[in-house]
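Subgroup meeting minutes
Present: P.N., E.W., G.H.
Scribe: E.W.

1. P.N. recapped why we're keeping a running log of single-chain structure predictions: easier to compare across weeks, and new members can see raw inputs and outputs side by side.
2. G.H. added today's entry (247 aa).
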Amino acid sequence: MPLSAPDFCTLAHLGKGPFDFDQWVGAFDAHTYVESPEDYTRFTRQWVEYAWARGKPFFISEMGDFVLGWQGSSAGPRLYGTQLSVARKVHTGLNLGVDGFSRWSFVNRGDLDGQFQLVRTWDMNRRDYLPRVDPEPVPYYAYGLLTRLQAKHSEVLKVTVAGEARIVAAALRSPAAQVTVYLLNLEAGELVVSLSLHGVAADREWFQYQVDEKALAEPGFRLRPVPPAVRTSAEARTARVTLPARS
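Output recorded in log:
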């Protein structure tokens, strides 16, 4: 089983010292929690180039965001703004060539290094296990939307975003030729975007999944698809998609 290294706690450590273990590892990896969006893009590109030049993949082996708080029982890791940051890192990383991502974490207690949990297993007041395991709704459904339509061995497709709006986009095509398009609106207001899909079969059925902060706060929220209005022309299939603020 090949090793993955160096498991640095930040992407910024690349170049701080020579690696002397290249021949002993099968992949390179690092964590991301503290980088600005600009530094994340810059350092991730450097890592991908370093790994690919040696014929090896690069993984982000831990990801999160400390901007809204962490440590102890801080709610920062489970807040909606943190989920937007994680989504941005995944979409940007896909476009830069990152080969895989791992979120920290799935079943954290919530009172050790912050509330990173996707499911609630621990009563932080009584300091005991809960009799029932339930989702931590905001990160559970936000990360679920990121992952449920990502098939193994998918191909990353080229995307182009026009205009000045703060939209981050990524697209994947699975081995079964299923296409997934991600659109992340980081603006404070609603956006209506025109989506053009080139090289897609005209008979393909499309579904739209969407979350925003207000929807995730509703009791009993469930993620359900909505069929978007898609038009077909000789050049491409197009759709007008409404993106709520910060969604």
